[in-house]
Write a structure and sequence with these properties.
Largest sheet: 2 strands, antiparallel
Order of helices and strands: EEHEEHH
Oligomer: single chain
CATH architecture of the largest domain: Ribbon
Strand order of the largest sheet: 1-2
Number of strands: 4
Helix content: 40-55%
Strand content: 15-25%
Number of domains: 2
């Protein structure tokens, strides 16, 4: 649903709140059918960006833990009695990484 203007194609919001991102924007951002996106407000504007690969999120989390542990001293490895809820969340993220990063 594009309305041509002097500035280019302007997507409109349909009755269900959906918009169609222009093809050139999707291509530049690597957004393909099935890509999960994050939508948030920033300075009064809607910002849409592709979600990071779950494997990249895990790598960043592990790096943050390693960086924090340098400042705190010794930490307990996840395999040594981690909180069951944390383990369940970690496992879900890893399953997502396996499913999404193979594409």
């Amino acid at each position: 649903m594009f309305i041509p203007t002097l500035c280019g194609n302007v997507p409109t919001v349909d009755s269900k709140g959906r918009i169609v991102l222009p093809q050139d924007v999707r291509e530049r951002l690597g957004i393909t059918p099935g890509t999960e996106v994050v939508v948030h407000e920033e300075d009064g504007k809607a910002v849409v960006k592709p979600e990071d690969c779950p494997e990249e999120i895990l790598e960043r989390m592990e790096q943050l833990i390693a960086d924090a542990s340098l400042n705190r001293g010794e930490t307990t490895p996840l395999s040594d009695g981690a909180d069951p809820i944390a383990e369940k969340h970690r496992d879900a993220v890893r399953r997502g990484a396996e499913n999404h990063c193979d594409e």
